[in-house]
Amino acid sequence: FFLLDTGANIGMHTLYGHLSGRFSRVVSVEASARNFRFLESNVREKGFDEKTSTIHCAGGRTGRCREAFS
To answer: How far apart are CA 28 and CA 60, in angstroms?
Structure first.
């Protein structure tokens, strides 16, 4: 199973998803550039960077999210 964390903010649900042991992979999507930097840092610091895909995009950016998920 994988967890899709949309609006991931700084990654609290992303980290919980890993710590719960229920998900083998987490995909985290965050629109804010500032929050995205914190998200990536938190994932890396906790050692989940190999099991997490972080995507920086928002629904209003035509094509960018589609490319990230294809």
So the answer is: 17
